[in-house]
Amino acid sequence: DADVTQTPRNRITKTGKRIMLECSQTKGHDRMYWYRQDPGLGLRLIYYSFDVKDINKGEISDGYSVSRQAQAKFSLSLESAIPNQTALYFCATSDRQSRDTQYFGPGTRLTVL
Amino acid sequence: AQTVTQSQPEMSVQEAETVTLSCTYDTSENNYYLFWYKQPPSRQMILVIRQEAYKQQNATENRFSVNFQKAAKSFSLKISDSQLGDTAMYFCAFMKHSSGSRLTFGEGTQLTVNP
Lengths: 113, 115
Prior knowledge:
B: four-stranded antiparallel β-sheet; globular
């Protein structure tokens, strides 16, 4: 079984809809991250969480919110999706034992029409 | 703020040959980590290799090695004996030493290995 899982893997939605992307991990890591990938721009950080009570904005947090329901679960929400949020979304995890190396989930392809 | 630049959007190499991917970065930090990630068509992000800035010795992982030039802020990836399965997008990434810090990625280099 994969250590970091994301659901759904693909999603098509309409402008204005609320969308939640979910991430779960079995690695026992305390830190979790959400990134967005656009063509030609690499990955950019949306939000990150060092533990259940610690959530921080990344460089492109506008239009997104997150929830850390448990150490193993970190959800990303788009309250009112817009077309320029069409992208590939990645969840990642890390901890001190992994020497802060981040391990990525398989990604979610989101299309907003 | 840190920036990472990969100046080669696309590269190609013949199977079994060696190829080098370039990466430069800009930072005022002294302690940091550098990474190369691979993204094959499956879109999974896979760690290839990691380098701590305080280590002078270049990291190696089987056919993958880096040339880390701290003063020049350069971090290139060399792939030896290229295989068809090495075809992927390769991303260079930077992280400050403070625990749990964000990764800053370059734009990526699409590598194609030809038979």
